[in-house]
Amino acid sequence: xxxxxxxxxxxxxxxxxTRRPSGLGFNIVGGTDQQYVANDSSIYVSWIxxxxxxxxxxxxxxxxxxxxxxxxxxxxxxxxxxxxLFRNAGYHVxxxxxxxxQPQNGPVSHRGDGDSxxxxxxxxxxxxxxxxVTAVWILLRYRQRM
Length: 146
Description:
This protein is of the alpha+beta class. The protein is 27% helix and 27% strand. The protein has helices spanning 53-57, 79-87, 121-145; strands at residues 4-6, 10-18, 26-30, 43-48, 65-69, 72-73, 92-100. Strand 5 and strand 6 (72-73) form a beta hairpin. The protein starts with a strand and ends with a helix.
């Protein structure tokens, strides 16, 4: 992440998106009138639309806290007021986000498409390829003895 580490295990990042005809490509939750997290009226990303601007950019994730949009602080806003800010943000939109840092014990998904991380593709392909090569070698050796 190209951001700074904020206190309390959070990292901050500025993400610039270009609005597409269908919008920015994500939904938000939160606000003073409908808190998503208890005792926290912040605005959070709840869903990222596949093939939307945020999805194609790849940096915004479900669960990210949006601190500001185009430099405008989102603190202490009602949900509908936050939605209006997003709708009227213009074509080029700058988001300041906070993300809880994850312990790096394994792979972490970089997109909010429901992928839980899982094994990297190479971790599956390399042993599989080695097994296939070994099987072919054994087969060829067996055929030579006949």
